[in-house]
Specification:
Blueprint: H1 4-8, H2 11-17, H3 19-32, H4 34-40, E1 45-46, H5 47-54, H6 58-70, E2 74-79, E3 82-87, H7 89-94, H8 104-118, H9 121-127, H10 132-136, H11 143-147, H12 151-162, H13 165-173, E4 183-187, H14 193-201, E5 206-211, H15 213-223, E6 231-235, E7 246-252, H16 260-273, E8 274-284, H17 295-307, H18 315-324, E9 328-333, E10 340-345
The structure holds S-adenosylmethionine.
């Protein structure tokens, strides 16, 4: 903001002020099934028809649809009978439940869980820690006990986190040539979205999803097809239990959950288990070295404050952790998308 004109009408300020209203409109349209209905319908629908099919008030729905038009999540055609709404390409691709690139579950996790935690952002900054006690009345002593405070919450988390790999998975797994590594462990591999990308890109690889027992159970039951022989499972706690030998360990969005001492503990343990010549692949969103951006990563780092014990880091910070654990030949690859890749070798 440079000119006096900008200061007379601080548009950017209003935009920021309204940021959460925008999020909530998108979340609500998703939750009510607006985009799914319009995908299935033969043609554009009137507001009254949408309200009736989705069981909402006519007045509320009309305003929701018009706001979605303003956000370019819907298109509208004016006919003699009134306005008729249809999905845009963006909503068809990302906001409908059935699309292979659907972000529906991620949005629902934001709407139902992240949003509630962010209510306590000021407290999080004051306290310097996550806000599970205030937001959900659960102890935050064990981070994943708090995150998985019910089976339902754990499943929402798994669906929510998995969604992004249909958009960014191929870029991070293909950032380096991982074909020399055939025995791969995805530590904290969760629902297996990245493991699936990995076996599809590298035909000689097998990937073991190593995660907490209850996560592994759900991954097996709901996410990874039983006939997929190249994905196997290992139930364990990577801080307390042994980590088996492998050529490559993937740590995707793991280190950002933890403070430096826990990251060091985990990386040192991985280094010990790793075959000579093997490696570790970090998949994280990277801050600029001077921490001036990218904004998305700065926002996620705030989210780590409210929801976890870690933070987003710069390439130099990750490289320092890897080097201290004994990894060498550390290479950083920015993908141009949300998540980047760092490879360290033993
Ligand atoms: N790697 C996945 C991804 O990027 O979509 C999931 C990342 S999620 C932020 C962290 C994962 O680490 C969860 O699946 C969680 O269950 C797992 N995790 C947390 N603590 C763990 C522990 N002590 N041992 C094994 N897995 C753990």
């Amino acid at each position: 903001m440079s000119s006096t004109e900008d200061l007379d009408y601080p548009q950017i300020l209003f935009q920021y002020n309204n940021g959460f209203l925008v999020s909530k409109i998108m979340f609500t349209a998703c939750e009510l099934g607006v985009f799914d209905l319009l995908l299935e319908s033969e043609g554009p629908l009137s507001s009254d028809a949408i309200a009736e099919r989705l069981g909402t008030s006519a007045s509320g729905m009309e305003r929701l649809l018009d706001a979605c038009v303003g956000l370019k999540l819907l298109g509208v055609e004016m006919k003699s009978e009134g306005a008729f709404y249809r999905n845009t390409e963006l909503s068809n691709l990302y906001l409908t439940k059935s699309s292979p690139k659907s972000q529906y579950h991620n949005l629902m996790y934001y709407s139902k869980t992240v949003y509630l935690c962010w209510h306590y952002l000021t407290d999080a900054v004051r306290d310097g820690k996550n806000q599970y006690e205030r937001a959900f009345g659960v102890s935050s002593k064990d981070l994943f006990e708090a995150l998985y405070r019910s089976e339902e919450e754990m499943i929402k988390f798994m669906y929510g986190l998995n969604a992004i790999w249909s958009i960014c998975g191929r870029d991070v797994i293909g950032a380096f040539d991982l074909s020399p590594f055939t025995v791969i462990y995805d530590l904290g591999g969760c629902a297996g979205g990245l493991a699936q990308e990995c076996i599809s890109l590298y035909p000689n690889s097998t990937v073991t999803i190593y995660d907490l027992p209850k996560v592994v159970q759900v991954a097996k039951e709901r996410f990874v097809p039983a006939e997929e022989r190249r994905i196997t499972f290992h139930e364990g706690d990577f801080f307390k239990d042994p980590i088996p030998e492998a050529d490559l360990y993937i740590l995707a969005r793991i280190l950002h959950d933890w403070a430096d001492d826990k990251c060091m503990q985990l990386l040192a343990k991985i280094h010990k288990a790793c075959k000579p010549g093997g490696g570790v692949l970090l998949v994280e969103t990277l801050l600029n070295e001077d921490k001036t951006g990218p904004l998305e990563t700065q926002l996620y780092s705030m989210n780590m404050l409210v929801q976890a014990e870690g933070k987003e880091r710069t390439p130099a910070e990750y490289s320092k952790l890897l080097a201290a654990a004994g990894f060498r030949e550390i290479q950083v690859k920015k993908t141009g998308k949300l998540y980047d890749a760092i490879l360290g070798r033993k």
